[in-house]
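Subject line: Sequence and fold of a protein, written as structure tokens
Body of memo: The sequence and its backbone structure tokens, given next.
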Amino acid sequence: MASLVICLLFGQVVSAQTQNGSLQVEQGIKDYNAGNFPNAIKHWEEALNQYKNNPSDAAVVNENLARVYQQLGQNKEAIESLSAAIRDYGAVGNIQQVGRMQSELAQVYSNLGQPRKAIALLCGKLVDKSESSENQPSQEIKCTPESAQQIATKYNDKRGQVAALGILGEAYRLIGSYDQAIQYLDTAQQVSPESKFLVFNSLGNAYKSRGQLRELQADSANKAGIFSKENEFTKKSEEDYNRAYQYFQDSIKFARNEKQPLAEMRGLLNLIQLGSQTNQRKFINDREFNTTIKDALKVLEELPDSATKVYGAIDLAYLQRDAKGSSPFTYCPTGLVLSGDNEALNLLENSVLTSKKLQDNRLISFSNGALGHFWECSPDNEKALKNEKALKYTQAAIIAADSKLSAKDSLYLWEWQAGRILDEQKRNEEAIASYQRAFDTLEDIRQDILTAERDVQFDFRDVVRPLYRTLAQSRLDLLGVGAIADEGRAKELSKVVNTIDALKLAELQNYFGNDCILSGLNPKQVGELLEDNSVAFKNTGFLSSIILDGKTGILLQLPNQATKFKWIEDPNQQGEKIVSSDTLQKKIAEFRTGLVKREEINYDTTIASQLYDWIIRPFAEDIKPEKVKTLVFIQDGFLRSIPMAALYDSKLNKYLVETYAVATTPSLRLTTPKLRDRSTQKALILGLTKEATIDGKTFEQLFAVPDEVSAVESIFPNHTPLIDDNFLAESFQQTLDKTTYPIVHIASHAQFGIIPEDTFIVTGKNQKLTISQLENSLRNLNSKSDSVELLTLTACETAVGDDRATLGLAGVALQVGVKTAIASLWSVTDQSTSELVKTFYTNYRNTGMSIAEALQTAQIRMIHAKKLPPSEGVNIMYDHPAYWAPMVAIGNWL
């Protein structure tokens, strides 16, 4: 949306200053205005050759080239031309124009999903979320002197200021700093009131995004049982949607007055989408909704051929009354508003024609892909014909997207679409090849899509996850046909493993909203890691789960052995043996509920035994205890929420942890298996004993924390304690600034919400240490966070009902660069946790045990509580898995 600012403020091509190459420049301008972009490039490149020693005119030509490359979606070339223009304008001392070019360059980076680069160019300083809030916004925008914003201010360049501030606001919106975004956009409209309509759209989007975030926060508060907070966030969300509605209305009104149809079209589309995506009919009633659609259709007809005209036609064609909020190309939309008299089809066919006239590969790709999707989703009356049309347009979209990679961010969509159509035509191997290309493209660009630290990102569940699962399932189904030789099966399974691993990494990255967790990512694939680390991985088995459509698979990997795969089956089931994913999920929920509630003193192992038979027993011959000592689980979806250590072998009358040390990791590629010297390690011990209230929720007093802290202090003589009022975010940071601690032990309540903002540790004085603060503190260490070996979190709580919450547990250590985390899958009594932790640390410190084995020994001691002499001081109730099972080792298990 912010591109409107650039296009309408100073987005026109300009003439050169001298006569030498002016003919080429003027001819290029004529071609550009006529829409003949390739010829314009040819003339301007010739002019550039004549201006080699004339930076003043070369700057103008590079500026023009940047504009035409942006029109063609050739961002790499646009960046090169803008960088050259900045250099040339700088050489002749035209600093005002340097600032403007920096703003244009920032816009390109923002469009590429790199808003942080945009902010660096526009302001030079990134304002952290913690520095600005809705209630206490920064009073002054402080940017570095060489930044675009400061240059425009210094030269009183109103257009430059509006552009810099407008794009700056949009960039902050993209990284989820909505309060900061609103502040910059408000400042932009004050600088130049006559340009208000240019930033109204961005302001509307900022308020809409913040409204969506608050909806998520209300949902998170509901799941955590904080209903007063839920009501507060719901009210604030409605207020934000109301403000968004008003800004979109104002944008439309001002654009009409200024006779700016492109801006008017964007405002109309935004208003329509606000009504359909948020279901906020209290702002937009049916009559107004329908009137706005008619207005948009009328404006669309009058628009000159442009990108806005193409995208506007696609948006209107796929408009739904109750949209899911994610890309309509990932599913077949129902309830299209324009469903009569082939309205939607006509709009899509016209968008294809317009994109061809503009010779813009990016537009050609999107318009053909959208038309192909329309035919893919059309009724099955003439299945063969509609699939033929769908594939024809989809392939045209792929060709256009692949041309100079001008629409790489859409290429995966169309390859995925082609795969679905080929699947429908029973062309299975071709479909898999298409899915694989979609996967490869998405893996290549996913980091750019996800590096924006947005709280409300594109819907990962509807976009990335289904593609990865579809590819994995297609390969596994092909293996089930039985026509592939053993060598081919091994290769296919290896590809499945890589797909599943990529899904786990993508989910983590999406949950935290940034690429920090990828800083320690091993570039090698899982199979290579198993070969390279066969000594470190000796006696270790890796069990990966993948939840697919209707069934769940388990893969077993052992060093230097072929991967084995099995669907989860119930041998006692009549007929079809495969356990449906729904049945498994219900059984998992039942298993977890039975543990968390711990209603019976004598634990009923029936469900634990059933799950053992489904998940572990099929691999019994491969993981015999004399060969395999440790099992590392790489879990998917709802399987993350349960402790595998508590599965029960009814034949041996043993829990799984009594036979194997158990650990978990999100991905082997994020794990650094290494046994280190623990004899001289220092420990930072953080503890809270008092009752605390955070965001209206009361966290009870932890009576056993003093004993737990005392025990940890005795095990680690070289320690620093921060307890109760001394345990604050500031004191934690200051302590870490002075020295580095390989062990960080936190005995306090920790909550992992369904969004990162609700993930925090309770500190003294009714305050909290957020996951972002924890990350920043550990990353700022002088010797880097690489030296933090172990982070232990006791008394954790996760939001019930959302498997994303457990990503907080899996990712917290990786997010802050810690090698291993010991944490709880749910809140347990602090006395039992204290007992478990003392034994764990004693084993960890004083023996040659691995981390997984140290935890295993501590858990077995509690399992045998009734057999221990009273002098051991272990409560006999602690043999119940509710007390020992939730503690899990995450990351490096050695």
The chain has 33 helices and 17 strands. The chain has a mean pLDDT of 84. The two ends are 50 Å apart (CA to CA).
